Amino acid sequence: MKEQLVMLKEQALEKLKEQSTLQQLGDWKATYLGKKGELTAALRGMKDLSAEERPVIGAMVNEVREALEQALETKEEALRRAEREKRLREETIDVTLPGRALPLGSEHPLNRLIREAEEIFLGLGFQIAEGPEVETDYNNFGALNVPKNHPARDMQDTFYISEDMLLRTQTSPVQGRVLRANVEAAKQRGETSPQPVRIIAPGRVYRRDDDDATHSHVFMQIEGLVVDRNIRMSDLKGILTTFTQQIFGSDVSIRMRPSYFPFTEPSTEVDVTCYSCGGEGCRICKQTGWIEILGAGMVHPNVLEMAGYDPEEFTGFAFGMGVERIAMRRYGIEDIRHFYTNDVRLMSQFKSRV
Ligand code: 2U9
After folding, report:
1. d(Cα 7, Cα 12) in Å, to the nearest integer?
2. Domain range summary for the chain, segments of one domain joined by +
3. Which residues line ligand 1 (CB under 6 A)?
4. If we measure between CA atoms, which residue out of 291, 211, 223, 212 comes closest to residue 252?
5. What's the fold here for domain 109-347?
6. CA 305, CA 248: separation in Å to the nearest integer?
7. Residues 68-122: tens digit of each pLDDT
8. CA end-to-end span of the chain
9. Peptide bond into 266 cis (omega under 30)
10. pTM of structure
11. Which residues belong to the annotated binding site?
């Protein structure tokens, strides 16, 4: 029996060396240590032993069992470690490999120009105001001193939804709303004067035009409004000079020509030095050296009065620009319709700066 046990132990340990997976270790354990295993069989044979032999053999069986269990544990640990190391080796990431480029969209050139303008005006202390595209006739025209018989009010030029609802033809109603809200807020607080304003209103506007290379029935505007005490035309010129130099470059200058708008008096059209020829005269500026980019003026006292600002206490300036016209010149886009047909061959040229 003793020899048998010694052999069993040696054979088991020999076999253990050959096992190379955890699965095989399980089988080995069943063969030698399991309920139907060889050691259990040896234990069963003990009943045939004499009373003297039994404790000796019993102790030996236990010793063999412990030795086998110990060997199994050591082997199991070694196998686990080896498997883990193999997995880690296989899963190693080569961090020096170049990344796979994800297809990225690009910012629409109109949005990009608006965002840049917003950043400039925010830096100058302006706030950004927004409002509805469907407006009342009063907000779009009446409150802006546009008389009932003005050609702009014609059905030919404006999309009317009903007698007194329309698609806004400019973003000015947004500024009108801000002025009236300020007057209302001052009243609520029991203050005698409303707060000054310094806002820009970027957004979509509509005109009843036949679309062609330079006309679109829907386009973007950025308008600005400053109302405070002692606001003068020189403040307007300063703000517009700073803005145009930040958008077009620090070497451009502006000039103001007299013009007429119902909502401003005096009114002016503003030109910048041609950014194509630098003022020399070329095809783009039609040999004048100047390019018209916006309209502006001192807010008409009637407009202030209608909104509830006392024109004796407050003065202000306003300006407006068409975003497409500036974007077309800046990016050399020759047909305004490109902005709205969203041809990826055009749009993908405006990859955002990430
Ligand atoms: C209020 C008072 C006055 C907004 C202004 C212009 C001059 C202007 C045009 C530029 C090209 C429209 O897109 S365009 O066709 N706009 O010339 N807009 S002053 O004046 C305001 C606005 C709000 C309360």
Report:
1. 8
2. 2-90, 109-347
3. 144, 170, 172, 175-176, 221, 223, 225, 261, 263-264, 294-297, 299, 303, 318-322
4. 291
5. BirA Bifunctional Protein; domain 2 (3.30.930)
6. 36
7. 889 889 888 988 898 899 899 888 888 899 988 888 888 899 999 999 999 999 9
8. 81
9. yes
10. 0.73
11. 265
